[in-house]
Amino acid sequence: MTNFKLTVSDVNGKSITKELKDSDANTLLGLQLGNETDASIVGLQGKLKLTGGSDKSGVPMRKDIHGSARKYVLLSKGIGLQTAEIGQRARKLMRGNTVSEEIYQINCKFNGELPVETPTEVAVEA
Asked: Rounded CA gap, 106 and 65, in Å?
């Protein structure tokens, strides 16, 4: 039983979050960061490009680590290392670039504009 939280962002910077379960989530298994998939799994028409994600314990995915395993990597800059002085390096735990069942959140970029949802007014009866 696979569950993902899918965060979808559009070209204008607006984002939405969808929960994917079972058969919808199984279509993402095995995809790598940078791959594109159909946006119909979240109810949109177009393509979704996988840009990142994290696993159940918050370990981020990194595009240059192959597979889905967790590895300690020596980093000098980039994803997973926020502040580093010149010449400083740190060994950090990272997740590979392949979506597996251990992944909890997946970040995606939508190639169009997300629909605007207007809040519905609730009538209060007196």
From this structure: 16
